[in-house]
Input
Amino acid sequence: MKISVIGAGYVGLTTALVLAELGNHVCCLDKNELRITDLSNGEIPIYEPGLKELLVHNYSRLTFTADSKKAIEISDVLMIAVGTPSLPDGSTDLRYIKSVIDDLSNFISSYKTIITKSTVPPGTNNLIVNSLLERGVNRSHFRVVSNPEFLREGTAVYDMMHPDKTVIGLEDDDRESLEVMKELYKGMNAPFIVTSLNGAEMIKYANNAFLATKISFINELSRICDALNVNIETVAEGIGSDPRIGPKFLQAGIGYGGSCFPKDLKALQYVASTYGIETRILDSVQHVNNTQIEFYVDKLRSTLDDLKNKKITVLGVTFKPDTDDTRDSPAVKLINAIACHGCDVHIYDPKASTSDLNHINITLHSTIDTSYIDSDCVIIATDWDEFLSLDWKLVKDKMRGSILLDGRNCLDIKKISELGFTYIGLGRV
Ligand code: NAD
Ligand code: UGA
Output
């Protein structure tokens, strides 16, 4: 198939490279010319494991362009994967989707299946249909399909190649696009869930909202376990063994972040509010998450007394391991929060870019070894493998103090305590 993917970020680029790997000819369109230059030169502009290998392997089936007209004209299948960030009131900023609509209405001159992979609020795919019709695009020249994406950063390639489902939302009278979607994904073995455009959009938000709910649930329980001296991991294991609950997404820590959970929960809450519907569960999930950093800072203050002038090392800036993404990262919130208390913060991350860190008392280290020298306290904010396998005895020897705050409950508490650390976790005994 000839496919154009619009937007070459985490989702668009992964989609393009995986579809090329499945044997398709794929044109990758992005308005960011620097990104297109990098890709044309064989460089991956983001950090996502596996993408580089796919790019090299499929280079002959890929084209990269910043020219919307070209990308829209050469393919019958157009996949939209542009960003859909939050506006300050929680609603979704659809400016990138609208700019795609502008391009589609200007350049569609033959039949296209337009597939939305971006996460968009219920009603948006219908808005795309109506906008194209209002701008004079012939009804016989397009169909719009909602096909939300469920990949995780850090494992994007694996997730896209092994989806647990393929959600397809169709226009009510669309009899053609399901066959196109079957052809598109014929190399994959996932069940199709076929529904309306609004239904597919809703499944995506519900999926993310439920996962975030599990995280806030375990984080709230951890606070209770902390007070009761009960081990949260045993509790998670206990409830996770019930197949109706399941063991995943029950890892307690500094909370969820990233470019999706925070914005998608706000967007769903906003949509509900426009219908006058209360969202007590979504409100609480966000409240627990938004107060989790404060909870950790209080824990730290009760051990270190005054944070002022203390040297604190934070390991991890990204919102999770195996990505360079710091969007809405709880690690960034934690770093900024402790920096506000007047301590001298030293940070290290294997991949992050650190533009979100704006305090003068924050020092970025390019190697881990220099980051913890003479520190009063080391904090793990992201559970990168590099931190799990660190020589913690050496770290302890080079530190001034002995406090280790494990914001991801990821270290072996017994081993770490034996090295002489004062260990602070959440709900861990
Ligand atoms: P991103 O910010 O990494 O990439 C978006 C890209 O689109 C950018 O490179 C930008 O330059 C480009 N772009 C913007 N307007 C354009 C236009 N008119 N034409 C061409 N290119 C344009 O975004 P992302 O993280 O890949 O997310 C994209 C969408 O997928 C969002 O709706 C997000 O919620 C959803 N999603 C993301 C993930 C994830 O893990 N990141 C997972 C599932 C779904
Ligand atoms: C999440 C979903 O898992 C994907 O299915 C979805 O496609 C994507 O959002 C999206 O819509 O963008 P992602 O944000 O890449 O993927 O990462 P997750 O692995 O879900 O982690 C999200 C956050 O929750 C991270 O900050 C992570 O550290 C935190 N988390 C996760 C926990 O605190 N505890 C857990 O048990 C699991």
